[in-house]
Design brief:
With about 575 residues, the chain is mainly alpha-helical. Helix content is about 50%, strand content about 5%. Strands 2-7-8 form a three-stranded antiparallel sheet, covered by helices on one side. A two-stranded antiparallel sheet has the order 1-4. Strand 7 and strand 8 (about 500-505) form a beta hairpin. It starts with 7 loop residues before the first helix and ends with a helix. Mean pLDDT is about 75; it is low at about 1-5, about 15-110, about 180-195, about 270, about 275-285 and about 425.
Length: about 575
């Protein structure tokens, strides 16, 4: 890497200095960066036979943002009596078809999030043996357990790079820092809008995909409508470009060798006295790790885009179907709500590009635009929920595929070799007995099962996405309908000519959504990192329960042995 173009690792180092302080992985030897005056996000090799003691001992605590203690209104709570009545709107009738206050914006009740996993982690921290030097749960883990924790650290480091699009070129990354995201975030007035496209670090298949998408837009037009058949054919070709070996009868190609080095990617906690920019020699210190990290980031990008193309192809009905709100608004206009017959080519391509080259907010903005059937940039509450939940699918699918490749790339209990050092050609790898192979297969199966459980439970159960989305919609200042619920009397369409009330809830724009989401639900801006952080917590809980079970078995064995000895002594009398 040259000094004119800072590497992706250096940009990650700058970003780590600007982020709030977080706990650092303990017991990691620091080699070349130990003498550096600035502690930055780095990549280092951990020998498999030695564990260094951290130079400075401090009590580690799990930082929890305010969004993890979401205190707010519960629509299920009872009203809290107040000294003065709330200023509500008139009921439908002579006063007009407008509701002033709905069930989500008035009333009382406080809801606080709880987490059994975090409570268990707090319990395990209280059981740490400080006499043995255990200051964190990482210190209490055995060496084999540390290998799993290091793998989670490396995967989280890669996911963080993809979530923030740190693999983009320097010019685009600089514009993104100055003006915000490609769409959705607030931008400075004079800041140019960064464009999504391939960079010098992009995967060749993603570069080919972008060229093909550009050619289709040039030949058909960016606003060309895609019918169901054209939509399926378009995404089938995109999937073929992203996975050219899928239809081949030959065995699939092996994943990159760099996936075996995932346990070596570590994000160190920045020093509080460090400058905003690392010293110029950081690039040379990290030069040996730049290539394997780039390969891993490119691989995750490719797998995420594959999952997005596959999910898009199966989502035609969800993108074109009419929601209940669409039916009600059509009834007010005395029209029939018909499903969409086509989707714009440019918006479909924008979703693919956002997954191939963009950040998490870029993906959400592209999906928001694709679901905007009225062209006003606003969605109803049900569609808003669908957009957020849909955006999680490709991230989860890409991480699941990468995790499986990482587990298979190298033995989960094999020794780690330094970067760029492979086993000699004439060296013979030690053969593993059937017991070792069976044990390793059991460990891999357990890790995959745990990761699947993390994907299924994190956003839905632990973060409680449905409740957060409901609160975001209720608390957002929506300009549509002056943020009021309108009730209109329309014909029911029966022979008797009866009337019925149609309640039209206000729609929410992307800017209004993100204004509240940034404060109360920042998790969706770092989906990959969130999933890997939750997986690491699951590892700590499983390891802590294992230590508790072993201690319980030992105490039971000592108790039974003592009682048996006493009984034997009594019988001898």
């Amino acid at each position: 890497p040259t000094s004119k173009r800072p590497t992706m690792l250096r940009r990650l180092a700058v970003d780590a200095v600007r982020r709030p302080r977080r706990w650092s992985p303990p017991g990691r030897p620091i080699h070349s960066l130990a003498a550096s005056p600035v502690s930055v996000s780095a990549v280092d090799r951990r020998p498999a036979t030695e564990i260094a003691t951290p130079p400075r001992v401090r009590r580690q605590q799990q930082r929890r943002s305010m969004s993890d203690n979401l205190l707010g209104h519960s629509p299920m709570a009872q009203r809290v009596p107040t000294s003065r009545p709330a200023a509500g709107g008139a009921s439908p009738g002579s006063a007009g078809p407008s509701w002033g206050v709905d069930s989500n914006t008035a009333g009382g009740g406080v809801w606080a999030q709880t987490s059994a996993k975090r409570d268990k982690i707090a319990e395990l921290k209280l059981e740490l043996d400080w006499d043995k030097g255990h200051r964190t749960l990482d210190d209490a883990a055995s060496h084999e357990e540390k290998l799993d924790l290091w793998m989670a650290d490396g995967l989280r480091f890669i996911a963080r790079a993809v979530d923030g699009a740190w693999d983009a070129d320097e010019e685009v990354a600089g514009r993104r820092e100055e003006g915000g995201s490609v769409s959705g975030e607030e931008k400075e007035e004079d800041a140019p809008t960064p464009t999504l496209g391939p960079s010098s670090k992009s995967h060749p298949l993603l570069v080919e995909l972008d060229a093909w998408l550009t050619s289709t837009e040039s030949s058909r037009g960016i606003d060309a409508p895609l019918s169901r058949d054209h939509f399926d054919a378009h995404l089938a070709e995109a999937s073929r470009i992203l996975d050219p070996d899928a239809a081949s009868p030959l065995p699939p190609p092996t994943p990159p060798v760099a996936l075996g080095d995932v346990r070596d990617f570590v994000a160190y906690d920045p020093d509080p006295d460090a400058d905003d920019v690392p010293p110029p020699d950081v690039d040379s210190d990290l030069s040996t790790a730049e290539v394997p990290l780039d390969e891993c980031v490119r691989r995750l990008r490719l797998l995420t885009t594959r999952a997005a193309a596959s999910r898009l192809r199966d989502s035609w009905d969800s993108f074109t179907a009419s929601t209940d709100a669409d039916v009600d608004r059509a009834a007010v206009r005395h029209e029939a709500a018909e499903p969409r017959s086509s989707l714009p080519l440019g918006k479909v391509n924008a979703v693919l590009r956002s997954h191939a080259f963009g950040t998490c907010p870029d993906r959400l903005a592209a999906l928001w635009d694709l679901n905007d059937r009225d062209g006003d940039g606003a969605l109803d509450q049900a569609t808003m929920d669908d957009v957020v939940l849909w955006s999680m699918g490709p991230v989860e699918g890409g991480l699941r595929a990468l995790f499986e490749e990482v587990v298979e790339a190298r033995g989960v209990r094999d020794l780690l070799l330094p970067f760029g050092v492979d086993m000699a050609e004439d060296a013979v790898a030690p053969k593993k007995g059937w017991r070792q192979r069976r044990r390793e297969a059991k460990i891999k199966k357990g890790l995959l099962k745990m990761f699947d459980k993390t994907i299924a439970n994190h956003f839905d159960v632990e973060v409680e996405t449905p409740h957060r989305l409901r609160c975001i919609y209720a608390w957002a200042e929506k300009s549509h309908q002056d943020n009021k619920l309108e009730s209109v009397l329309v014909d029911s369409g029966t022979v008797a000519g009866r009337k019925r009330y149609v309640e039209l809830q206000p729609k929410i724009s992307l800017a209004e959504f993100q204004e509240v989401q940034k404060e109360h639900y920042p998790h969706i801006d770092r989906m990959g990192e969130e999933l890997l952080s939750s997986f690491r917590e699951d590892l700590l809980v499983a390891q802590g329960k294992g230590r508790q079970n072993r201690e319980l078995k030992r105490d039971c064995a000592l108790f039974i042995g003592g009682v048996s000895l006493i009984d034997a002594c009594i019988l001898m009398l």
